[in-house]
Design goal:
This is Sodium:proton antiporter. The protein has 155 residues and is mostly helical. It has helices at 3-6, 10-41, 53-83, 89-123, 125-152. The chain has one domain (10-152): Butyryl-CoA Dehydrogenase, subunit A, domain 3, CATH 1.20.140. Helix 2 (10-41) runs antiparallel to helix 3 (53-83) and helix 4 (89-123) packs antiparallel against helix 5 (125-152). The protein starts with a helix and ends with a helix. The relative contact order is 0.11.
Length: 155
């Protein structure tokens, strides 16, 4: 069904798009916040002190990506609240879309970092690099490449 077949006004379409986007963000938000919380307490664990300098850098990039994902995934709510009843829904929806995509990208980076850290701790550096690479390829393929390919194919 195309937008024309819906017989909706621009405002109705924006409302539908906003509702859809917020539902998608709700699915991701809790997981991102749990991941961020988990990562924030790691330095206070006894085993953290034995991490090598390179692994500490991986940890910091991972934490930064997770916090960034949290910021971008929650940002649309703030945008909507601040611009509520200002007839800016089109701007809010387009900005929220960009925030969601950025947040998901950062979430992929954070999850790849977590996988790398876990595999390094459990199985060593070679397994960590392999697992991190596999995770990065999977995130890119499933979250980006496949949807973009389907977007370009006719119905």
């Amino acid at each position: 069904m195309t937008v024309d077949e819906r017989h909706e006004t621009d405002t109705e379409r924006l409302d539908r798009n906003w509702g859809s986007l917020i539902q998608e963000l709700r699915v991701v938000e809790t997981g991102v916040q749990f991941l961020t919380g988990f990562l924030l307490v790691l330095p206070f664990q006894t085993g953290f002190a034995v991490l090598s300098h390179p692994l500490r850098l991986v940890y910091l990039v991972t934490v930064g990506a997770s916090i960034g994902a949290t910021v971008f995934i929650v940002a649309p709510v703030s945008w909507h609240r601040i611009l509520f009843r200002r007839h800016r829904l089109g701007h809010v929806v387009s900005t929220a879309h960009r925030c969601a995509m950025t947040g998901l990208g950062l979430l992929g980076v954070a999850m790849t970092g977590v996988i790398l850290l876990v595999f390094h701790t459990v199985l060593g550096p070679v397994a960590a690099v392999v697992a991190g690479a596999v995770a990065a390829v999977l995130f890119a393929a499933v979250w980006l490449i496949m949807p973009w390919r389907w977007r370009r194919t006719p119905r």
